[in-house]
Amino acid sequence: MSQGMHLSNTETIPGKLITASYGLVQGSTVRAKNAFKDFGAGLKNIVGGELKAYTELLQESRNEALQRMMMDAQARGANAIVNVRFATSSVSGGAAELFAYGTAVTVQ
Amino acid sequence: MPTLVSWFFGNLHQGRIIDQLAHEEKALNDSGAGHPLNNLSKPSQTRDIESSTLVMSSISVGPSWWQMMIGGWKNFFGGEIKSFDKMLLYGRHKVLHDMRVQALDQGFDEIINLRVDTSMITKTSGSNDKTAAYEFIAYGTAIRYVRS
User: Which of A45, A52, A55 minimises the CB distance to B130?
Assistant: First the structure.
């Protein structure tokens, strides 16, 4: 992961010791797909299957939310985030909110 | 008319991608590849760990108009909505298969604490909305043990 920050969705970074904890950090984005691609996804619903436009939209948004969470942790002086969790919710108008949160810690 | 198009091409397209995924999964199993995914909260072995990282995979799937129409009717009568099952099962299998491939390709020994979340994304720009998407995300902590 960028910025040299360790991430994990377990209680610890496996193989490392937590020496300090800085509390909950979070990052979120709300992103809407551009109208043409959204229309394409609407058409894609005629046959169903994977909606690549939404897959990409949500992946980009999730990475953005992760970056914001890492910046939040870095500002507190942490070098790792444990117990990372994700939440996705639908916002009206074809937009989605991506939320990432975890506990910022220092590990050795 | 669009719903008939949806029924025919929907079945065709979905059948094709489901078969393709089944084929890929079988090929992977036949090649003797391991099963590195688990939802243990700690590494399964007590060996020294070289590195670990968060990994994730996601996909958005949607039923066809025809399936949504059937789903609407079925909702009225209750019971299992098989028409939705098809694409949701596909999405969930695909995302777990992608995680497994990612683990094997990048040389991770295992991915622990796997979580799989589902969320519904809808477009509500007035009435007669026909877009429905379900997002599956799988994420876990990938571990590489020290090679002894």
Answer: A45
**Mean pLDDT of all residues in chain B?**
85
Smallest CA–CA distance, residue B58 to chain A, in Å, is 7
Q: What is the ipTM of this complex?
A: 0.85
CATH assignment of B2-145? 3.30.110.70
**CATH superfamily of the A2-107 domain:** Hypothetical protein apc22750. Chain B (3.30.110.70)
pLDDT band for position B101 (cuts 50, 70, 90): very high
HEC per residue, A22-81: EEEEEEEEEEECCHHHHHHHHHHCCCCEECHHHHHHHHHHHHHHHHHHHHHHHHCCCCEE
Q: Is the pTM of this model over 0.80?
A: yes
On whether any CB of chain A is under 8 Å from the CB of B54, the answer is: yes
